[in-house]
Each structure stands twice: as C-alpha cells, then as structure tokens.
C-alpha cells in the first residue's frame, strides 16, 4: 500500500476515484459538491488530501485542513473491503502529522449522527466534544 499527498496535477482519473470512494462510503451530500471540495483542498496551502493506493486502486482517503487555530479532518474514507486492517488509523496519523507541521495543536472532526465510523474515533484518542454546531445557508 502507498500513501500519497495529492497535488494540483492529480489526474482526472485519480480525482474521480477519490470522489467515487467518498460516495461509496456515504460521505457526500448533494448540496456540497465533492469535486469542488477536492479541488479546493488540493489547491489550497492550508489543506492536504492523503490517499491510500493498493495496486493503483483507491482504497482510502482523508482530507486535512488547518484554519489557523486547529486542524480539521474531513472525508475519512476506507474501502469497505479494507476496513478493520488499520488503514483508517494510518490515514489519520498521516493527516495529524501534516497538521502538526502546519501549526495545529488540536485536531477536530464532525461526524453525522448514525455514521458507523463514529465508534472508531475513541480508539484513535478522540473524545466527544460538548459543542453545538449551528449552521445557516448563505445566498449567493
């Protein structure tokens, strides 16, 4: 297995494979185009996308971003055939290393209710935070 930080030159085939993985893991929403998220993360200096390739097949990914205060993890995805083998831990550790180098002292993530992956995070040292998240759609 090979871990790769995607760069702006990532091919359309690679980008499509990442989005397909995200969709297959139930991480996308119709109001938030994953292709745009991926393009912005690859192009931005405060984010990275790490993918796991096995025989050139996309088997995992995580998007890490640093907002100047803390690091955030998004789109942690592992191909269902590779779950339980420690790949999520490897991806998270790689993202955390990148975030620490960027200056983050804390890493956070949000998990939708009902996501079975929520049970993974305490095993990786993450604690549930007592924080309410409020949102508002902006016109435009």
Automatic annotation (TrEMBL):
Matching entries from Gene3D superfamilies are given as: 3.40.630.30
Could you give a GO molecular-function term held by this entry?
acyltransferase activity, transferring groups other than amino-acyl groups
Q: Does the keyword 4Fe-4S apply?
A: no
Domain of life from the UniProt record: Bacteria
Tell me the ranges covered by the N-acetyltransferase domain, including all copies. 1-140
Q: Which parts form a coiled-coil structure per UniProt?
A: none
The UniProt keyword set, sorted, is: Acyltransferase, Transferase
Q: Which PROSITE patterns match?
A: GNAT (PS51186)
| One Pfam family recorded for the sequence | Acetyltransf_1
The record's section on PANTHER family has: AMINOALKYLPHOSPHONATE N-ACETYLTRANSFERASE-RELATED, AMINOALKYLPHOSPHONATE N-ACETYLTRANSFERASE-RELATED-RELATED
Against NCBIfam families, the record matches this protein to: PRK03624.1
What protein does this entry describe? GNAT family acetyltransferase
Organism, by scientific name, is Litorihabitans aurantiacus
